[in-house]
Amino acid sequence: MSKPVTIKDVQVITTQPSTQRLVIVKVITSEPGLYGLGCATFTQRFHAVVTAIEKHLKPFVLGRDVSRIEEMYRMATVHSYWRNGPVLNNAISGIDQALWDIKGKMANMPVYDLLGGKCREAAVVYVHANGDDPREVEENVRKYVEEGYQYVRIQMGGYGGKSDMKPRPEGSPPGHYYDPRAYMRNMLKMIEHVRREVGPEVELLHDIHERLQPIDAVAFAKDVEPYKLFFLEDALAPEDIQWFHHIRQQCATPMAMGELFNNPREWQPLISGRLIDFIRMHVSQMGGITPARDVALHARMYGVRTAWHGPGDTSPVGHAANLHLDLWAPNFGVQEWCRFNNLVYEIFPGLPEVRGGYMYPNDKPGLGIDIDEKLAAKYPCQDEVEQWTQTRWPDGSPARP
Ligand code: MG
Questions:
Q1: Cβ atoms within 10 A of the Cβ of 120, count?
Q2: Which of 67, 177, 182, 272 has its CA 20 to 30 A from that of 347?
Q3: Ligand 1 centre from 51 Cα, in Å?
Q4: CA 140 to CA 161: how far, in whole Å?
Protein backbone atom coordinates (compact mmCIF):
# COMPACT_ATOMS: atom_id res chain seq x y z
CA MET A 1 0.00 0.00 0.00
CA SER A 2 1.25 3.47 -0.83
CA LYS A 3 1.74 5.98 1.93
CA PRO A 4 -1.34 8.13 2.58
CA VAL A 5 -1.36 11.80 1.62
CA THR A 6 -1.51 13.76 4.87
CA ILE A 7 -2.31 17.27 6.06
CA LYS A 8 0.94 19.22 6.22
CA ASP A 9 -0.32 22.70 7.01
CA VAL A 10 -3.52 24.66 7.54
CA GLN A 11 -3.60 28.34 6.61
CA VAL A 12 -6.36 30.86 7.11
CA ILE A 13 -6.91 33.62 4.56
CA THR A 14 -9.11 36.58 5.43
CA THR A 15 -10.18 39.21 2.93
CA GLN A 16 -12.87 41.85 2.47
CA PRO A 17 -13.13 42.80 -1.21
CA SER A 18 -16.66 44.14 -0.73
CA THR A 19 -18.92 44.58 2.29
CA GLN A 20 -18.44 41.15 3.90
CA ARG A 21 -15.42 39.85 5.78
CA LEU A 22 -14.55 36.44 4.28
CA VAL A 23 -12.64 33.56 5.90
CA ILE A 24 -11.07 30.90 3.67
CA VAL A 25 -9.16 27.83 4.85
CA LYS A 26 -6.31 26.42 2.79
CA VAL A 27 -5.30 22.85 3.64
CA ILE A 28 -1.85 22.02 2.32
CA THR A 29 -0.94 18.35 1.87
CA SER A 30 2.20 16.25 1.92
CA GLU A 31 1.85 15.96 -1.88
CA PRO A 32 3.74 18.86 -3.49
CA GLY A 33 1.32 21.36 -5.05
CA LEU A 34 -1.80 19.60 -3.76
CA TYR A 35 -4.05 21.77 -1.57
CA GLY A 36 -7.74 22.40 -0.97
CA LEU A 37 -9.90 25.41 -0.09
CA GLY A 38 -12.88 25.62 2.24
CA CYS A 39 -15.31 28.33 3.36
CA ALA A 40 -15.23 29.22 7.08
CA THR A 41 -16.98 32.59 6.81
CA PHE A 42 -18.76 33.89 9.90
CA THR A 43 -18.48 37.51 8.96
CA GLN A 44 -19.66 39.05 12.26
CA ARG A 45 -17.18 37.06 14.41
CA PHE A 46 -14.38 36.30 11.97
CA HIS A 47 -11.51 36.70 14.47
CA ALA A 48 -13.00 33.96 16.63
CA VAL A 49 -13.13 31.55 13.66
CA VAL A 50 -9.54 32.36 12.67
CA THR A 51 -8.35 31.63 16.21
CA ALA A 52 -10.41 28.43 16.44
CA ILE A 53 -8.73 27.15 13.28
CA GLU A 54 -5.18 28.29 13.97
CA LYS A 55 -5.02 27.44 17.66
CA HIS A 56 -7.36 24.44 17.96
CA LEU A 57 -8.29 22.70 14.70
CA LYS A 58 -4.93 22.96 12.96
CA PRO A 59 -3.03 21.05 15.68
CA PHE A 60 -5.91 18.53 15.71
CA VAL A 61 -5.75 17.75 11.98
CA LEU A 62 -2.02 18.03 11.21
CA GLY A 63 -0.61 14.72 9.98
CA ARG A 64 -4.04 13.15 9.37
CA ASP A 65 -4.85 11.19 6.22
CA VAL A 66 -6.65 13.58 3.84
CA SER A 67 -8.85 10.80 2.47
CA ARG A 68 -10.78 10.32 5.72
CA ILE A 69 -13.22 13.22 5.46
CA GLU A 70 -16.08 11.47 7.22
CA GLU A 71 -13.94 10.52 10.21
CA MET A 72 -12.41 14.00 10.43
CA TYR A 73 -15.82 15.66 10.39
CA ARG A 74 -17.33 13.30 13.01
CA MET A 75 -14.32 13.56 15.32
CA ALA A 76 -13.95 17.34 14.91
CA THR A 77 -17.57 17.92 15.94
CA VAL A 78 -17.05 16.15 19.27
CA HIS A 79 -13.36 16.77 19.87
CA SER A 80 -13.96 19.96 21.83
CA TYR A 81 -16.64 18.14 23.89
CA TRP A 82 -18.67 21.42 23.92
CA ARG A 83 -20.21 21.60 20.49
CA ASN A 84 -22.79 22.96 18.02
CA GLY A 85 -21.66 26.58 17.98
CA PRO A 86 -21.29 28.76 14.89
CA VAL A 87 -17.61 29.56 15.48
CA LEU A 88 -16.47 25.93 15.63
CA ASN A 89 -18.88 24.77 12.92
CA ASN A 90 -17.49 27.33 10.49
CA ALA A 91 -13.95 26.36 11.42
CA ILE A 92 -14.76 22.68 10.81
CA SER A 93 -16.42 23.58 7.50
CA GLY A 94 -13.20 25.21 6.32
CA ILE A 95 -11.35 21.92 6.79
CA ASP A 96 -14.24 19.72 5.57
CA GLN A 97 -14.72 21.60 2.29
CA ALA A 98 -10.97 21.77 1.70
CA LEU A 99 -10.75 17.98 2.11
CA TRP A 100 -13.56 17.47 -0.44
CA ASP A 101 -11.66 19.80 -2.78
CA ILE A 102 -8.48 17.77 -2.25
CA LYS A 103 -10.27 14.45 -2.77
CA GLY A 104 -11.69 15.73 -6.04
CA LYS A 105 -8.26 16.86 -7.21
CA MET A 106 -6.77 13.46 -6.29
CA ALA A 107 -9.55 11.63 -8.14
CA ASN A 108 -9.45 14.13 -11.04
CA MET A 109 -13.21 14.60 -10.57
CA PRO A 110 -15.41 17.56 -9.70
CA VAL A 111 -16.97 17.28 -6.23
CA TYR A 112 -20.44 16.70 -7.74
CA ASP A 113 -19.06 13.47 -9.23
CA LEU A 114 -17.76 12.36 -5.84
CA LEU A 115 -21.26 12.93 -4.42
CA GLY A 116 -22.88 10.69 -7.04
CA GLY A 117 -22.82 12.70 -10.24
CA LYS A 118 -24.88 15.44 -11.82
CA CYS A 119 -28.67 15.48 -11.96
CA ARG A 120 -28.59 18.72 -13.97
CA GLU A 121 -26.18 20.82 -16.04
CA ALA A 122 -26.62 24.03 -14.05
CA ALA A 123 -28.40 25.34 -10.96
CA VAL A 124 -31.28 27.75 -11.36
CA VAL A 125 -30.74 30.79 -9.13
CA TYR A 126 -32.75 33.53 -7.47
CA VAL A 127 -31.62 37.09 -6.99
CA HIS A 128 -32.70 39.93 -4.70
CA ALA A 129 -34.90 42.82 -5.80
CA ASN A 130 -35.47 45.66 -3.37
CA GLY A 131 -37.07 49.07 -3.63
CA ASP A 132 -38.52 51.91 -1.58
CA ASP A 133 -42.05 51.41 -2.88
CA PRO A 134 -43.98 48.64 -4.69
CA ARG A 135 -43.40 50.19 -8.13
CA GLU A 136 -39.65 50.35 -7.65
CA VAL A 137 -39.59 46.71 -6.53
CA GLU A 138 -41.63 45.82 -9.63
CA GLU A 139 -39.20 47.71 -11.91
CA ASN A 140 -36.25 45.87 -10.38
CA VAL A 141 -37.98 42.52 -10.83
CA ARG A 142 -38.55 43.36 -14.50
CA LYS A 143 -34.85 44.20 -14.96
CA TYR A 144 -33.86 40.80 -13.60
CA VAL A 145 -36.44 39.01 -15.74
CA GLU A 146 -34.97 40.74 -18.81
CA GLU A 147 -31.55 39.36 -17.80
CA GLY A 148 -33.02 35.86 -17.81
CA TYR A 149 -33.72 35.30 -14.12
CA GLN A 150 -36.87 33.29 -13.44
CA TYR A 151 -36.79 33.57 -9.63
CA VAL A 152 -36.66 36.87 -7.75
CA ARG A 153 -36.81 37.57 -4.03
CA ILE A 154 -38.80 40.73 -3.36
CA GLN A 155 -38.15 42.95 -0.34
CA MET A 156 -39.06 46.60 0.29
CA GLY A 157 -36.91 48.90 2.42
CA GLY A 158 -34.64 46.04 3.57
CA TYR A 159 -35.42 43.50 6.28
CA GLY A 160 -38.33 44.65 8.39
CA GLY A 161 -39.11 47.37 5.87
CA LYS A 162 -39.16 51.12 6.37
CA SER A 163 -42.28 52.62 7.84
CA ASP A 164 -43.48 55.69 9.65
CA MET A 165 -42.37 54.87 13.12
CA LYS A 166 -44.50 54.90 16.16
CA PRO A 167 -43.38 57.43 18.81
CA ARG A 168 -40.36 56.19 20.75
CA PRO A 169 -39.87 56.52 24.48
CA GLU A 170 -37.77 59.53 25.48
CA GLY A 171 -34.09 58.69 25.68
CA SER A 172 -34.33 55.69 23.32
CA PRO A 173 -30.92 54.49 22.07
CA PRO A 174 -29.96 54.62 18.39
CA GLY A 175 -30.41 51.52 16.25
CA HIS A 176 -32.39 50.01 13.39
CA TYR A 177 -35.99 50.46 14.50
CA TYR A 178 -38.86 48.76 12.78
CA ASP A 179 -42.56 48.27 13.33
CA PRO A 180 -43.60 44.65 12.70
CA ARG A 181 -47.30 45.38 12.26
CA ALA A 182 -46.60 48.14 9.70
CA TYR A 183 -44.16 45.78 7.99
CA MET A 184 -46.93 43.19 7.56
CA ARG A 185 -49.33 45.71 6.01
CA ASN A 186 -46.73 47.23 3.68
CA MET A 187 -45.25 43.93 2.48
CA LEU A 188 -48.68 42.51 1.74
CA LYS A 189 -49.43 45.52 -0.49
CA MET A 190 -46.04 45.21 -2.18
CA ILE A 191 -46.36 41.48 -2.88
CA GLU A 192 -49.91 41.94 -4.16
CA HIS A 193 -48.73 44.76 -6.46
CA VAL A 194 -45.71 42.91 -7.87
CA ARG A 195 -47.68 39.71 -8.52
CA ARG A 196 -50.45 41.62 -10.27
CA GLU A 197 -48.03 43.59 -12.46
CA VAL A 198 -45.46 40.94 -13.43
CA GLY A 199 -47.94 38.11 -13.92
CA PRO A 200 -47.99 34.50 -12.74
CA GLU A 201 -44.87 33.18 -14.52
CA VAL A 202 -42.16 34.94 -12.51
CA GLU A 203 -41.37 33.00 -9.35
CA LEU A 204 -41.45 35.39 -6.39
CA LEU A 205 -39.90 34.81 -2.96
CA HIS A 206 -39.91 36.80 0.26
CA ASP A 207 -37.78 36.67 3.44
CA ILE A 208 -39.47 37.69 6.72
CA HIS A 209 -36.08 37.34 8.45
CA GLU A 210 -37.81 36.34 11.73
CA ARG A 211 -39.17 39.87 12.15
CA LEU A 212 -42.70 38.94 13.25
CA GLN A 213 -44.31 37.61 16.38
CA PRO A 214 -45.25 33.96 15.79
CA ILE A 215 -49.01 34.51 15.55
CA ASP A 216 -48.46 37.39 13.10
CA ALA A 217 -46.24 35.10 11.02
CA VAL A 218 -49.13 32.62 10.82
CA ALA A 219 -51.47 35.40 9.67
CA PHE A 220 -48.94 36.73 7.14
CA ALA A 221 -48.36 33.29 5.61
CA LYS A 222 -52.14 33.02 5.13
CA ASP A 223 -52.44 36.55 3.75
CA VAL A 224 -49.84 36.00 1.02
CA GLU A 225 -51.21 32.60 -0.02
CA PRO A 226 -53.19 33.97 -3.02
CA TYR A 227 -49.98 35.45 -4.53
CA LYS A 228 -48.38 32.01 -4.95
CA LEU A 229 -44.89 32.72 -3.62
CA PHE A 230 -42.24 30.16 -4.55
CA PHE A 231 -41.39 30.29 -0.89
CA LEU A 232 -41.72 32.41 2.22
CA GLU A 233 -38.49 32.36 4.21
CA ASP A 234 -37.79 32.48 7.93
CA ALA A 235 -41.37 33.23 8.91
CA LEU A 236 -40.35 32.02 12.37
CA ALA A 237 -37.20 32.12 14.45
CA PRO A 238 -35.39 28.85 15.24
CA GLU A 239 -36.67 29.26 18.81
CA ASP A 240 -40.29 29.20 17.61
CA ILE A 241 -40.31 26.28 15.18
CA GLN A 242 -43.25 24.56 16.86
CA TRP A 243 -45.41 27.30 15.37
CA PHE A 244 -44.84 25.78 11.92
CA HIS A 245 -47.64 23.31 12.75
CA HIS A 246 -50.07 26.21 12.91
CA ILE A 247 -48.92 27.67 9.60
CA ARG A 248 -49.22 24.28 7.90
CA GLN A 249 -52.73 23.72 9.18
CA GLN A 250 -53.94 27.03 7.82
CA CYS A 251 -52.36 27.62 4.40
CA ALA A 252 -50.32 26.16 1.57
CA THR A 253 -47.70 28.92 1.29
CA PRO A 254 -44.39 27.05 0.72
CA MET A 255 -42.06 27.54 3.68
CA ALA A 256 -38.26 27.88 3.64
CA MET A 257 -36.29 27.75 6.85
CA GLY A 258 -33.04 27.24 8.62
CA GLU A 259 -30.08 29.49 7.74
CA LEU A 260 -29.47 29.93 11.48
CA PHE A 261 -29.53 26.25 12.42
CA ASN A 262 -26.32 24.87 13.93
CA ASN A 263 -26.78 21.11 13.89
CA PRO A 264 -28.09 18.63 11.29
CA ARG A 265 -30.55 17.24 13.85
CA GLU A 266 -32.33 20.58 14.10
CA TRP A 267 -33.78 19.85 10.65
CA GLN A 268 -35.23 16.51 11.61
CA PRO A 269 -38.63 17.51 13.11
CA LEU A 270 -39.35 20.06 10.40
CA ILE A 271 -38.46 17.69 7.57
CA SER A 272 -39.97 14.49 8.93
CA GLY A 273 -43.09 16.41 10.00
CA ARG A 274 -43.34 17.83 6.45
CA LEU A 275 -43.61 21.27 7.98
CA ILE A 276 -41.24 23.04 5.58
CA ASP A 277 -40.58 22.81 1.84
CA PHE A 278 -37.03 24.14 1.46
CA ILE A 279 -33.90 23.79 3.59
CA ARG A 280 -32.10 27.13 3.70
CA MET A 281 -28.91 25.77 5.20
CA HIS A 282 -25.86 28.01 5.47
CA VAL A 283 -23.48 25.18 4.61
CA SER A 284 -20.43 26.49 6.48
CA GLN A 285 -22.56 27.19 9.56
CA MET A 286 -23.56 23.50 9.56
CA GLY A 287 -19.94 22.27 9.34
CA GLY A 288 -19.41 21.80 5.59
CA ILE A 289 -20.35 19.55 2.69
CA THR A 290 -20.49 16.37 4.81
CA PRO A 291 -23.43 17.40 7.05
CA ALA A 292 -25.12 19.23 4.14
CA ARG A 293 -25.13 15.99 2.17
CA ASP A 294 -26.65 14.16 5.16
CA VAL A 295 -29.49 16.66 5.56
CA ALA A 296 -30.15 16.84 1.79
CA LEU A 297 -30.59 13.06 1.66
CA HIS A 298 -32.85 13.08 4.72
CA ALA A 299 -34.93 15.86 3.14
CA ARG A 300 -35.20 13.92 -0.13
CA MET A 301 -37.01 11.10 1.66
CA TYR A 302 -39.75 13.56 2.65
CA GLY A 303 -40.09 15.58 -0.54
CA VAL A 304 -38.30 18.60 0.89
CA ARG A 305 -36.00 20.52 -1.47
CA THR A 306 -32.67 22.33 -1.06
CA ALA A 307 -32.15 26.10 -1.23
CA TRP A 308 -28.66 26.61 0.20
CA HIS A 309 -28.01 30.03 1.70
CA GLY A 310 -26.02 32.09 -0.80
CA PRO A 311 -25.66 35.76 0.19
CA GLY A 312 -22.41 37.78 0.20
CA ASP A 313 -21.35 36.37 3.55
CA THR A 314 -21.03 32.95 1.98
CA SER A 315 -17.55 33.20 0.45
CA PRO A 316 -16.96 32.41 -3.23
CA VAL A 317 -15.49 29.08 -2.08
CA GLY A 318 -18.75 28.45 -0.21
CA HIS A 319 -20.73 29.32 -3.35
CA ALA A 320 -18.68 26.78 -5.30
CA ALA A 321 -19.48 24.16 -2.62
CA ASN A 322 -23.18 25.11 -2.86
CA LEU A 323 -23.09 24.63 -6.63
CA HIS A 324 -21.60 21.13 -6.42
CA LEU A 325 -24.35 20.15 -3.98
CA ASP A 326 -26.95 21.75 -6.30
CA LEU A 327 -25.78 19.84 -9.34
CA TRP A 328 -25.86 16.52 -7.49
CA ALA A 329 -28.91 16.80 -5.19
CA PRO A 330 -31.91 15.01 -6.74
CA ASN A 331 -34.09 17.21 -4.53
CA PHE A 332 -32.46 20.51 -5.52
CA GLY A 333 -34.92 23.42 -5.43
CA VAL A 334 -33.23 26.74 -6.15
CA GLN A 335 -29.91 28.47 -5.37
CA GLU A 336 -29.63 31.96 -3.87
CA TRP A 337 -27.15 34.14 -5.76
CA CYS A 338 -25.62 37.43 -4.60
CA ARG A 339 -24.05 38.62 -7.90
CA PHE A 340 -20.41 39.13 -6.90
CA ASN A 341 -18.57 42.00 -8.59
CA ASN A 342 -15.60 41.68 -10.97
CA LEU A 343 -13.03 42.20 -8.21
CA VAL A 344 -14.32 39.13 -6.36
CA TYR A 345 -14.08 37.14 -9.61
CA GLU A 346 -10.46 38.31 -9.96
CA ILE A 347 -9.57 37.26 -6.42
CA PHE A 348 -11.29 33.89 -6.76
CA PRO A 349 -10.53 32.40 -10.21
CA GLY A 350 -13.07 29.69 -11.00
CA LEU A 351 -15.93 31.36 -9.09
CA PRO A 352 -19.05 29.90 -10.74
CA GLU A 353 -20.56 31.97 -13.53
CA VAL A 354 -24.24 32.77 -13.87
CA ARG A 355 -25.76 33.12 -17.33
CA GLY A 356 -29.43 33.46 -18.17
CA GLY A 357 -30.52 32.73 -14.61
CA TYR A 358 -28.45 29.54 -14.26
CA MET A 359 -25.20 28.96 -12.36
CA TYR A 360 -22.69 26.83 -14.26
CA PRO A 361 -19.72 24.79 -13.02
CA ASN A 362 -16.35 24.70 -14.71
CA ASP A 363 -14.83 21.34 -15.59
CA LYS A 364 -11.99 21.51 -13.04
CA PRO A 365 -11.53 18.76 -10.44
CA GLY A 366 -12.44 19.39 -6.80
CA LEU A 367 -14.45 22.54 -6.09
CA GLY A 368 -12.95 24.19 -9.18
CA ILE A 369 -12.09 27.43 -7.43
CA ASP A 370 -8.81 29.06 -6.38
CA ILE A 371 -7.68 32.22 -4.61
CA ASP A 372 -5.19 34.89 -5.63
CA GLU A 373 -3.69 35.41 -2.19
CA LYS A 374 -1.64 38.48 -3.15
CA LEU A 375 -4.71 40.26 -4.50
CA ALA A 376 -6.82 39.12 -1.52
CA ALA A 377 -4.23 40.62 0.85
CA LYS A 378 -4.80 44.06 -0.70
CA TYR A 379 -8.31 44.01 0.80
CA PRO A 380 -7.85 43.22 4.50
CA CYS A 381 -10.83 42.72 6.80
CA GLN A 382 -11.96 45.87 8.58
CA ASP A 383 -12.68 45.80 12.28
CA GLU A 384 -15.96 47.48 13.04
CA VAL A 385 -18.89 46.93 15.32
CA GLU A 386 -21.72 45.63 13.13
CA GLN A 387 -24.54 48.18 12.92
CA TRP A 388 -27.34 46.53 10.94
CA THR A 389 -27.72 43.76 13.54
CA GLN A 390 -28.55 46.32 16.25
CA THR A 391 -32.24 46.08 15.60
CA ARG A 392 -34.99 47.41 17.88
CA TRP A 393 -38.73 47.18 18.35
CA PRO A 394 -40.69 50.48 18.35
CA ASP A 395 -40.26 50.83 22.12
CA GLY A 396 -36.46 50.51 21.81
CA SER A 397 -36.07 46.98 23.12
CA PRO A 398 -33.74 44.58 21.24
CA ALA A 399 -35.20 42.61 18.33
CA ARG A 400 -33.82 39.90 16.02
CA PRO A 401 -31.95 41.41 13.04
MG1 MG B 1 -32.61 34.59 4.75
A1: 14
A2: 67
A3: 27
A4: 17
